[in-house]
Amino acid sequence: MIRFDRPGSAGRTALVGVLSAGGLAVLWLACLTPSGRTGITAAAGLFPVAAVLLAGRAAGWLCWAVIALLGLLLLPNKAVSLMFALFLGLYPVAKSRLEQLRQRGLEWVLKLLLFNGAFLLLWYGLRGLLGLSLPEWLAGRTWLMLPAANLVFVCYDIGLSKLIALMTARLCRRG
Q1: 137: number of Cβ within 10 Å
Q2: Other C-beta atoms lying within 10 Å of the C-beta of residue 38
Q3: Which of 35, 96, 111, 123 qualifies as a FRET site for 3, CA 20 to 30 Å off?
Q4: C-beta separation of 27 from 141 below 8 A
């Protein structure tokens, strides 16, 4: 496998720059699409994953930070940038650390705490700024929102694990 995890490696710095540019480009696409913004923003979260796989967790954190900061500064849709910065870009990097815990139950408790904290901040703290609203079928049933969001998160986590396994297999085969 090709690795760029030596400290101070110029290749590592270049890799983080290229992956950050790719992630920012995907976030820009999310700003342009009338629908599917959350899915495209989640796809941008795969760039920090690639940085973690190729150059280590520190490179993944740096890639996430660069994409999040540049997204907030440069992109026209701040909601997309905030979704990436607060969860969809942050979680894939944090996931690599959380899954190193030896206790599976604690791992899931921490994952759910991270998700629920980000979700509640985005929904209740930034809803007006982001222009979020409930679908018509859920209006009046707001008590369903959090359980449904947690179910979607668990599916997202399982799917992300499968994507990371696929990325790892593809990167190992090339090395």
Answers
A1: 8
A2: 15
A3: 111
A4: no
Alpha carbon distance 48, 167 (integer Å): 12
Report the pLDDT value the prediction gives residue 102, as an integer from 0 to 100: 86
Instruction: Give the amino acid at 130.
Output: L
Per cent of the chain over pLDDT 70 is 86
Tracing tokens 């920012």 back to the chain, one arrives at 24
Chain centre distance of CA 115: 11
Q: For the range 66-69, what are the long-range contacts, defined as Cβ-Cβ under 8 Å and sequence gap of 24 or more?
A: 66/16, 66/17, 66/20, 66/24, 67/20, 67/23, 67/24, 67/27
Kindly indicate the confidence band of residue 1, based on its pLDDT and cuts at 50, 70 and 90.
very low
Q: What is the pTM of this model?
A: 0.86
The length of the chain in residues reads 175
